[in-house]
Amino acid sequence: MPLRCSWCDTAYAFEGGQWRGIDSILDEVRAYGARHVCVTGGEPLAQRRCLDLLACLCDAGFDVSLETSGALDVSQVDPRVRRVVDIKAPGSGESARNRWDNLRHLTSRDQLKFVLADRADYDWAAAMLRERDLPSRCMVLFSPVYGALEPRALAEWILQDRLPVRLQVQLHKYLWGEVAGR
């Protein structure tokens, strides 16, 4: 079941949309000429044929990543797909829905992402990093909530605490701003 984080930026995906066949999607993806495909937007794993789509994209030769909320099982995702699994911090309003069992399915090529709204979220994420030895599993990303936590402040905290994480910003929001329907 999809989550409803307090800072969700894909609320447009909750309703509407259009039914598409996998062949139609593959044709459109090929037309872009890109090598990497990221399946995201709301919760892709809530879509009935998402696992089939991921496998077909891999079979077609694409480098594929999946961005998922972390609340649904990732064990059946094709091993060729890089899994980017969110860990919901308390500020999201959804931290009780974290599926911690997903950690055992991650490999060194996967990523865990913490989206952080404030210092309390940061402190919680840093504690999870240590308690669960997350950096030994895969790359860990800390991302500030756009408009709530300044990237510079988050970077300074990471450097001060010497955390083995990467800072990630939502680049699309800096390039195109918060555009409805994106």
What does this structure look like?
With 182 residues, the chain is of the alpha/beta class. The chain has one domain: Alpha-Beta Barrel (TIM Barrel). The protein contains 5 helices and 6 strands; from the N terminus they run αβαβββαβαβα. A 6-stranded parallel β-sheet has the order 1-2-3-4-5-6, covered by helices on one side. α3 (119-131) links the parallel β4 and β5 (139-144).
List its salient traits.
182 residues; alpha/beta; TIM Barrel; six-stranded parallel sheet; 5 helices; 6 strands; 28% helix; globular
What's this entry about, in short?
With 182 residues, this protein is α/β, with parallel strands linked by helices. It has helices spanning 22-32, 50-59, 119-131, 151-161, 171-176, and strands spanning 36-39, 63-68, 82-88, 111-116, 139-144, 166-167.
Low-confidence parts lasting 5 or more residues at pLDDT below 50?
none
Q: How many domain regions?
A: 1
Strand order of the largest sheet: 1-2-3-4-5-6
CATH topology descriptor:
TIM Barrel
The number of strands is: 6
Describe the main β-sheet briefly.
Answer: 6 strands, parallel
The mean pLDDT is: 89
CATH superfamily: Aldolase class I
Strand content: 15-25%
* The CATH class: Alpha Beta
Helical residues, percent:
25-40%
N-C termini distance: 21 Å
What is the count of helical runs?
Answer: 5
Task: Find the structural class using helix and strand composition.
Answer: alpha/beta
The H-and-E topology, N to C, reads as HEHEEEHEHEH
